[in-house]
Design brief:
Number of domains: 3
Low-confidence stretches: none
Number of strands: 22
Distance between the termini: 72 Å
Strand content: 25-35%
CATH class of the largest domain: Alpha Beta
Largest sheet: 7 strands, mixed
Helix content: 25-40%
Mean pLDDT: 97
Structural class: alpha/beta
Length: 466
Amino acid sequence: MVEKFQAVVIGGGPGGYVCAIRLAQLGFKTACIESRGTLGGTCLNIGCIPSKNLLNFSENFHKAKNFSEIGIEVGEVKLNLQKMMQNKDKAVKVLTKGVEFLFKKNKVTYFKGTGKLISGTQINISSSDNSETKIESENIIISTGSEPVSIPGVDFDEKTIVSSTGALSLETVPKKLVVIGGGYIGLEMGSVWSRLGSEVHVIEFLDHITPGMDKEISSEFLKILKKQGLKFHLSTKVEKVIKNKNGVNISTIDKSGKKNTTDCDVVLIAVGRKAYTKNLNLDGLGIDLDDKKRIKVNKKFQTNIKNIYAIGDVIEGPMLAHKAEEEGIAVAELIAGQSGHVNYNIIPGVIYTTPEVAVIGETEEQLIKKNLKYKVGKFPFMANSRAKAIDEPDGFVKILADATSDKVLGVHLIGPHAGELIAEMAIAMEFGASSEDIARTCHAHPTFSEAVKEAALSVDKRQIHS
């Protein structure tokens, strides 16, 4: 007998498992298929969670080496990389097992294997033991995520030529690490290994880092990272990456035409990610893809086959776990006849370096391009008493508000705990707040959040502490 479900999710990452749980909560007989062997997708297993773990541990190591500067005398600080990696793996295991528990709690059937669409309602599941299972479902949701992109002609070996996956599991600290790509992932991993002792070089094709980010924030971020010891080669194209007995040789050319070669122990290629749709048989079913091989969907996340949906990294939009989660909830509620919705204008992005960088809404460059008139309010953490008290004064808060209505259009932060501070502005923007609303809301003292209030005051040039 072929087991029948009302909804089946292919992919157990943040979008997929959240979608499956919500479907079950809404009363659907639900299953989720995941090929990795553990739930949580790239995010929990080889992405967001282990990288934040190492960012935290490496920051603690860096601080411990400099304790004497703040009057804490300790002995020699040593790095035990193997133990650090074991702790990272432990955190991952606990969280992935937690998702399995949530499946049991919500009565979601969990299939370990690779799902392949046979028809609009049938799925074949190939397990690691070579067994096969066929199931049927009234609704199918594709949430298979994304995978790292390399540069032409270069394959990952995850030892010396690594993606973010390999960069999270290096067995020794490279003497020299070259990062190709100045985006979120490359800068986070570059920061980790720099703190642990690597000489880190970042090669970026553009003339700035963090493409798409507000240029003022990007420029400040670059200055801070340079001060921390990372070396940058901007407006530089990588021509060749060749493995040799000592590591890797990289050939580059800059915008003036000057060629250069450099040797390193490890190269991290962090030039982006692409939708992962292998083995799904999308062509066989005639499911439409866009020019970037992402699945085309309508506003209800339906493909051209109306009972097959897609969410997360396999469709258009930022490849962020929280974006996928929102879509997972939305599509489940839409299938149930409710009004699921995602506000794509208010999706925060965070870089978990030290200091953190967080952004939401429009950049100045986008507002100028749209010919929208706006006001700017800024406040430096140098003038924030909490930041000064703990010696984390780098960065600032920047609020962009409509020149006429005062509605907040975009917020850009670089500074301590920026990833947490951005949540206040996400809520404010969701409810259509003005900068005046933020400015007149009492914020506790002394807190980092006071910098947000002061930036809101600054929109009308009435900040108090700067």
